[in-house]
Design a protein that fits this description.
The structure is a homodimer. By secondary structure, the first copy, chain A, is of the alpha+beta class. Helix content of chain A is about 25%, strand content about 30%. Bound molecules: pyridoxal-5'-phosphate (PLP) (2 copies).
Chain lengths: ~350, ~350
């Protein structure tokens, strides 16, 4: 895959860079942004000329539909720098496709490939100093689209804004993660928008997650809302369970996001001759496995952390601690995936794309 | 109930009013706004001094959490003018309470009563010329709150903005409304945010509604997402079914908004000695009643239209036309409620509040 730059784009560079003020060692995730952003407006059926401009607040009407009806979608991806100072993306075609799937589900216009991918390439070329070398360092990429059209009437907008902002990230360490299995609250409905990266899916989880935090759990593993018997995914990660040397993960569905990390780990695990089964995983199976000692690992999979090992879970008032393994599969897979992403190992899958 | 104005508020009036440019006869709902808006910011746990200022776009950071995680809630209410030129609200305490319930569910700060109610009173005093006399005319009130706090990390913001904007509305006529009964898509999950007026709930409906529109249906009546057997509510209205001279409506739940119009109509209908049953209504019951001739009316109930009669519905590919009645209960109830709202009839319920 080769990304073409956009022929017709306005570029207005920042007069000074903020990069000197940034301490790349103490970055907290998602709070520092680079000098520039990509902006492209959609008006009455047409995408206008995109521009790269200094990162800055912008004006928006109080009646913009994003505020009232939540027409907003996003993607999350990363740029990595190799030892030769080249910048790489990991399966960006997957994020682009998913972005437009989310757009369709939220009745928003699809973003053309040259705006999304070409714009991203040009933005990254300008910001390449913000991509730091070294495993763990990366530049987090946040493409998003909001409804800027006005009016407090519940119908799709006719004006939209697509933007890409960039945030430098260092190695993600979340501490020990304990999770709560959802028994009452839910993340997504059958026939709902759970499979879209729609803004509203995330704020919907804040309150239940706050309650979980108060009980000492960092995250929730969501279950199906109808029966709360099937394990689905975490707030921003798909989940894997290793039981009796087999890796299990739920099939994606209308309720579950089709994570890029998830599907890459499945392929990697298969290549490593690890048994992988993609099928609904029941809460009762998990509890039983924890009780009879066959549960080996649980881990989340997502772009931010790649792999996030979970040390224990609570279900129906009982806490189940996972064994401490010397050689967890979670970390082995993370290492393999990172090696591909940072170009330290041959990319036999053809997942990496040079900027 | 008496509303107190806010002691400490900044008021900056617009130098000229736009009111002369507005044709109040041809207003389309939700597209014209008055001269002023109320703004109140929340920063690190504290609500700041509110202000009333000229209606205008404002600056916001591209990483504001409302754009990425959809932390946004709203209310919808109306101001009415009586024959003595006094301005009245209808059960504003219900909207205030519901707003703060939505805030809690979306992990947002609750808005103090003096900011919400007192601010609204002062704003309406300034904008009283925008409330036109005559049944059907009203000033639609849109209080809303958005997360202005920055950062692309999925967690509640620490900065928020509460605003009230106002939009003049004339008598709502939607034409003949045919509805589709949802068989696949859904509006809300068990344990989800359906009962909150959260922005994300509305955009989630746009795509299925677009598909319904293409089939000739203006709205969808949502069913429970787990089984699609129970009739729940429409996009911005609760729904009533009149079968064999009894009015049925679903009980409110985690999935269904507790509409002010719905509960007022229930009380009014009871006073008028109409049989009302609040209980789950099955799709099969509706179809059966349509088939055996006992289905008399279906109507939506919400602030915008008060009552919206439905002329027919489609379910599983079959269209069921409703009888054309000389004296529909829907319109009788609408008339009664309107008379209370416009102070044309005694308000024995104590629902109306003078500004
Ligand atoms: C709900 C949800 N599930 C799973 C994921 C993981 O997806 P990916 O691996 O593509 O980052 C994310 C994050 O993007 C997410 O938001
Ligand atoms: C989902 C939903 N249901 C029902 C209603 C009707 O509620 P109310 O009568 O309070 O306007 C609304 C509108 O506010 C709504 O958004």
């Amino acid at each position: 895959m080769e990304i073409k730059t956009i022929a017709d784009i306005d570029i207005k560079l920042a007069s000074v860079s903020k990069i000197k003020d940034v301490d790349f060692e103490t970055l907290s995730f998602g709070n520092v942004f680079t000098d520039h952003m990509l902006v492209c407006d959609y008006e009455n059926g047409v995408w206008k000329k995109p521009s790269i401009e200094p990162y800055a607040p912008f004006m928006i009407d109080p009646s913009a539909k994003v505020f009232h009806y939540g027409q907003a979608i996003f993607e999350g991806m990363k740029a990595y720098k190799d030892e030769q100072d080249d910048v790489w993306l990991f399966r960006p075609d997957q994020n682009y496709e998913r972005f437009n799937k989310s757009a369709v589900r939220m009745a928003m216009p699809e973003v053309p490939e040259d705006v999304f991918m070409g714009g991203l390439k040009q933005l990254l070329e300008i910001e390449k100093d913000w991509v730091k070398k070294g495993k763990g360092s990366s530049l987090y990429i946040r493409p998003f689209m909001i409804a800027t059209g006005k009016g407090v009437v519940a119908a799709p907008a006719v004006f939209y804004r697509f933007m890409i902002i960039l945030s430098p990230a260092k190695s993600y360490y979340s501490g020990e993660v304990k999770v709560l299995i959802a028994e009452h609250f839910s993340r997504a409905a059958n026939g709902g928008i759970g499979a879209a990266k729609a803004a509203g899916n995330y704020s919907a989880q804040f309150y239940p997650t706050k309650l979980a935090n108060e009980k000492g759990y960092q995250q929730i593993i969501w279950t199906d809302d109808a029966t709360h018997t099937k394990l689905e995914e975490a707030g921003t990660m798909n989940v894997f369970f290793r039981i009796n040397d087999t890796l299990y993960t739920a099939p994606t569905s209308e309720r579950i996001l089709d994570g890029v990390t998830r599907k890459s780990l499945i392929d990697l695990a298969k290549r490593e001759n690890i048994n992988v089964e993609v099928r609904p995983v029941l809460v009762t199976e998990l509890v039983e496995a924890a009780q009879n000692g066959t549960l080996q690992e649980i881990f989340g999979a997502g772009t931010a952390a790649v792999v996030n090992p979970i040390v224990g879970f609570e279900y129906q008032g009982t806490y189940y601690e996972l064994p401490k393994l010397d050689q967890p599969v979670a970390l082995a897979l993370k290492e393999k995936l990172n090696n591909i992403q940072y170009k330290l190992e041959e990319d036999t899958f053809g997942w990496t794309v040079k900027i």
